Amino acid sequence: xxxxxxxxxxxxxxxxxxxxxxxxxxxxxxxxxxxxxxxxxxxxxxxxxxxxxxxxxxxxxxxxxxxxxxxxxxxxxxxxxxxx
Length: 84
Fold this sequence. Notes:
The protein is built from four helices and three strands, in the order E-H-H-E-E-H-H. With 84 residues, the chain is an alpha+beta fold.
């Protein structure tokens, strides 16, 4: 569970709080007892950004036969749900 720390205490001694965060603790920063922010340890992002995904997708070449294959499959379907 995250500890609360008033913004005034954080201003007076940020090093103490940041060391605790670096050690894995989490804090909720409050302003006049109202939560305003979460202070959590840094972690590397998993995966790729949306911009990187879009860049990679733009490099993928179209499969010209895919649309024909899809239509052929739809014509042969019996109407039943394949997941049941």
